Amino acid sequence: QVQLVESGGGLVQPGGSLRVSCAASRFTFEDFEDFYMNWVRQAPGKGLEWVSTINTNSSSTYYTDSVKGRFTISRDNAKNTLYLQMHSLKPEDTALYYCARGDYSYDVWGQGTQVTVSS
């Protein structure tokens, strides 16, 4: 079945940078490039928070206010991979980061990659 696998999480100091990736596979009847892709995070003890969305050809990107100017979403359709470059990380960015497929609703999710921002 369709699969999304995140990687690249880890422990980083406040002010540091990190890039997380999401590799897509087994898109049987559709192509990765046909879908909007998203990053969603969940902080410890909190609910899911939408972070960012990118459209199919990367011409439009969207961010939640708390990450604007610090995070950049991108995709490489030739590699079936989604990225989230994070700069100026803050302790409040600590969360499990998920990638998800879809525009208004998300039908496929990855298992998540943990990002911890701490000194």
Tell me about the largest β-sheet. 7 strands, mixed
| Tally of strands | 11
Query: What percent strand?
Result: over 45%
> What's the Cα radius of gyration?
14 Å
Order of helices and strands: EEEEEEEEEEE
Task: Report the end-to-end length measured between terminal Cα atoms.
Answer: 40 Å
Instruction: Give helix % range.
Output: under 10%
SS content category: mainly beta
Global geometry: globular
Low-confidence stretches: none
Number of helices: 0
Mean pLDDT figure: 94
Features:
49% strand, 11 strands, globular, 119 residues, 4-stranded antiparallel β-sheet
Describe this entry's structure for a reader.
With 119 residues, this protein is an all-beta fold. The chain contains no helices and eleven strands. It has strands spanning 3-7, 10-12, 18-25, 37-42, 48-54, 61-63, 71-76, 81-86, 95-101, 108-109, 113-117. The strands form two sheets. Strands 2, 4, 5, 6, 9, 10 and 11 form a seven-stranded mixed sheet that branches. Strands 1-3-8-7 form a four-stranded antiparallel sheet, with no helix packed on it. The mean pLDDT is 94.
Structural topology:
Blueprint: E1 3-7, E2 10-12, E3 18-25, E4 37-42, E5 48-54, E6 61-63, E7 71-76, E8 81-86, E9 95-101, E10 108-109, E11 113-117
Parallel strand pairs: 2-11
Antiparallel strand pairs: 1-3, 3-8, 4-5, 4-9, 5-6, 7-8, 9-10, 9-11
